Amino acid sequence: MRIGDARGFTYLGMLFFVAITSAALAALGQHWSTAAQRERERELEFRGGEIARAIESYLLVSPSQPPVYPHSFDELLRDGRGIKPRHHLRRLYVDPFTGKPDWVLLAAPTDPRGFEGVRSRSEQALLRQLGDTEGGASRASDWLFKPTPTQAKPDPAASAASSPGR
């Protein structure tokens, strides 16, 4: 067998190798993209939840009744309504889908200047379908983050009086 005859087989082998490698890299890229999307969704859930908990904390320590909603993120970062300032939110979180702290503020029902929650500005579709929201959230902007209604704190004096003593 002459060396010149083997050149075509080597070329075909290399072409096959390049095609298989390209297909594998495309599949790996798709996997990485999906993993990055899932991570952004987890971050959105965490950051939105932190903001909702900060709003709830702000409402719980409100000196007025009915509670006053915050008017800006600055009030959650540093609440100066009391003698000692409170920090309901550690820092202003960035929306993981937009890369900026450009949350859409959901207007409070009792105070048009205040906000009762936030949502993402992004219209990107979610991989995870959320059935616990009204109609299900199929896009990042559909996922609303509001404080959960809390039960009234029981009065310790009333519970001590109603429990039998030893």
UniProtKB/TrEMBL annotation:
Biased composition (Low complexity): 152-166
Keyword Membrane: yes
Keywords: Membrane, Transmembrane, Transmembrane helix
Presence of the UniProt keyword Membrane in the record: yes
Positions of the UniProt region annotated as Disordered: 128-166
Regions crossing the membrane: 12-32
Full protein name: Type II secretion system protein
Lineage of origin: Bacteria, Pseudomonadati, Pseudomonadota, Betaproteobacteria, Burkholderiales
